[in-house]
Amino acid sequence: MITLLLHLLRLVPYLFGGHRQLALENLALRQQLAVYRRTATRPRLGRTDRLFWAGLARVWAGWKQSLVIVTPDTVRWQRRRFREHWSQLSTWPTGGRPPVHADIKALVIRMTAANPLWGAPRIHEELLKLGFGVAERTVSRLMPKRRPLPSQTWRTFLANHVRDLVSLDFFTVPTARLCVLCVLVVLAHHRRRVVHFNVTEHPTAQWTAQQIVNAFPDDSAQSYLLRDRDQVYGQQFRRRVKGMRIEEVLTAPHSP
């Protein structure tokens, strides 16, 4: 090792001068001669020799022509060892949070079932009082997911409330004088009976609200009123329907 450092110091002026190629080749040959002198029969590369050739291969493209004691594949041991090292690291177990004890899991599930109104913060506080050092996020993850009750479908709603359901809608009729009349129809779903209708050229929320009053005099209105989301059903219309104790049921946006 000391001999190699001496040779390197002698060649420093050539490395930074105009004879860099010649200096590197000379350094490679001198290193191989040192290996021959050190070994008796078969040249063997030590760790220092391998590091030398691995570093020389990075700074000199013609290192293969000067290497005679071993094959060039021997110098690639460092890359292969580097890949094997990282392959071994990738197989090791990764870090992270320690696993939660099974007793804590069972306790969180039991507390959730016994107290349906408790959330993760409340259960976390109770666990801390009992001496269990567990994070609130872990408690939230361990709690069983409460599935909301499924709402009834549109078909089910119509079947259950068909006797108490009326609907209203507009359709247009062109006239011979090229005018457009808006016809409002109030329909009872139980018998498919037209409860009320009227015609106007300029429908407004106030006019539409008055038609509801005319359709159901003497508190004979149904419980549910089905309508779309047209802008003609404005604030005055909604106040009048609410005053008649009729619950509005709106269709989905952009539905026919």
Shape: elongated
Helical content stands at: 40-55%
Assign the CATH class of the largest domain.
Alpha Beta
Q: What's the number of helices? A: 13
CATH architecture of the largest domain: 2-Layer Sandwich
Parts with pLDDT < 50 across at least 5 consecutive residues: none
Instruction: Give the mean pLDDT.
Output: 78
Number of distinct beta strands: 5
Q: Kindly estimate the percentage of residues that lie in beta strands according to DSSP.
A: 5-15%
CATH fold type of the largest domain: Nucleotidyltransferase, domain 5
- The CATH superfamily name of the largest domain is Ribonuclease H-like superfamily/Ribonuclease H
Q: Span between N and C termini?
A: 90 Å
Largest sheet, in brief, is: 5 strands, mixed
Structural class: alpha/beta
Task: Tell me about this structure.
With 256 residues, the protein is of the alpha/beta class. It has three domains: 89 residues, no CATH class; 41 residues, no CATH class; 97 residues, Ribonuclease H-like superfamily/Ribonuclease H (Nucleotidyltransferase, domain 5, 2-Layer Sandwich), CATH 3.30.420. It is 49% helix and 14% strand. It is built from 13 helices and five strands. It has a five-stranded mixed beta sheet with strand order 3-2-1-4-5, covered by helices on one side. A hairpin with a 5-residue loop joins strand 1 and strand 2. It is elongated, with a radius of gyration of 45 Å. The protein starts with a helix and ends in a 6-residue tail after the last strand. The mean pLDDT is 78.
What is the fold's blueprint, element by element?
Elements: H1 2-10, H2 12-15, H3 20-38, H4 47-59, H5 63-66, H6 72-75, H7 77-91, H8 102-114, H9 120-129, H10 136-142, H11 154-160, E1 165-174, E2 180-188, E3 193-200, H12 205-215, E4 224-227, H13 235-243, E5 247-250
Helix pairs in contact: 1-3, 9-10, 12-13
